Amino acid sequence: MHRDQEDIDAFVRGERIGQKFMDPYYISRGFTVDRSTSCHEYDVMIACNGREYKVEEKYRAQDYGDLLLELFQCLEEPQLGWIYHTRADTLNYIICDKDWQPEYFYCVTWRPFKKWLFDVIKHQSSIKTIVSPKGIGISLNMAIEWAIIPQEYWTKNTLEKSIP
Predict the structure, then answer these.
(1) Residue 33 CA neighbour count, 13 Å, CB half
(2) Rounded Cα distance, 13 and 21, in Å
(3) What are the helix (H) ranges across 29-162?
(4) Quick check: 3 pLDDT over 50?
(5) CATH class, range 3-158
(6) Which residue, 26, 12, 68, 65, is CA-closest to 164?
(7) DSSP-H helix ranges across the chain
(8) Alpha-carbon dihedral 8, 66, 109, 14, rounded to 10 degrees
(9) What is the pLDDT of residue 13?
(10) DSSP secondary structure letter of residue 83
(11) How far, in Å, are 97, 128, 134, 144 from residue 108 at the CA level?
């Protein structure tokens, strides 16, 4: 098996483990969970009191103090990153332990945050970028420190440590 495929498979396994913890969290907050509609535009649909929310979930094995946003998924065959494709209402940026069990997550109101982000970028002379050779090709990511993101766009939520 190609090394890139091994990385992709490992990440997909980790995401599935994380989802097994997130689904009970959503349910414990009164939401129904539907992953059957998952697509290129969002990962899960949750609903409560007649209102549906499209949620993009991003799992990270460690908190680096920033929000990592994929600009290009594959630099060899240019493919725009998920920040351009998602139609989510909310981004749940989930920080996991070494076994991919979510410990806490940042809940970002996606559309207002994205507008703020692109307004800020217009006035920046430099942006911290991270190139990652793991996953589907070589990706180019933008790292935005939580400390500079206005609190009105995100909350930090803890999760109970339990086995689903």
Answers:
(1) 14
(2) 13
(3) 82-85, 110-121
(4) no
(5) alpha beta
(6) 26
(7) 3-28, 82-85, 110-121
(8) 30
(9) 79
(10) H
(11) 21, 20, 25, 13
